[in-house]
Amino acid sequence: xxLPIHSSPPTLDAAEYSRADQTKSNSPELARMRWKQQxxxxxxxxxxxxxxxxxxxxxxxxxxxxxCTAGYLFSPIQLIPTFIPVIGxxxxxxxxxxxxxxxxxxxxxxxxxxxxxxxxxxxxxxxxKVRSPVAVIALLSIALLWLFAAITATTLIALYIxxxxxxxxAHSFNECNSKHLRL
Length: 183
Fold this sequence. Notes:
By secondary structure, the chain is mainly α. It contains six helices and no strands. Helix 2 (about 30-55) packs across helix 5 and helix 3 runs antiparallel to helix 4 (about 85-105).
């Protein structure tokens, strides 16, 4: 049974296209703005597909593609490991790009529009949400705990290395003195 293919609405509106045309300059600040806009758009698309995944009218095969795409991106086992500087990220981008294009074709346009609206609403709520003092204190305490652990580990390693080098120096000094005594 062939899979139905649905067209999706364009992801950029006219205002975003004009901003994209204005940012074609080679200025580093404009390039940074372009990267930030792209990252925000990718984040919005990811939220859109999250809401589409939860939507009851999305077919199971579209949900399977979304789950496999996310699973590959978060999996520690990949074709090209992510820690390889450039190539490792290229396969992630390729899988993300193909997953997004497949999902845009598989999910009906009206559902995709509804999910985009939910994603934009969720993003506005996230921006408007004030961080609670408990969350800030928890974040700071965890960061300080990790910093303390890193300093402690560094100190212990430094003490071990200096003690080991002193022991090696004393051992080689004793060997040198015993050789001179034999002569």
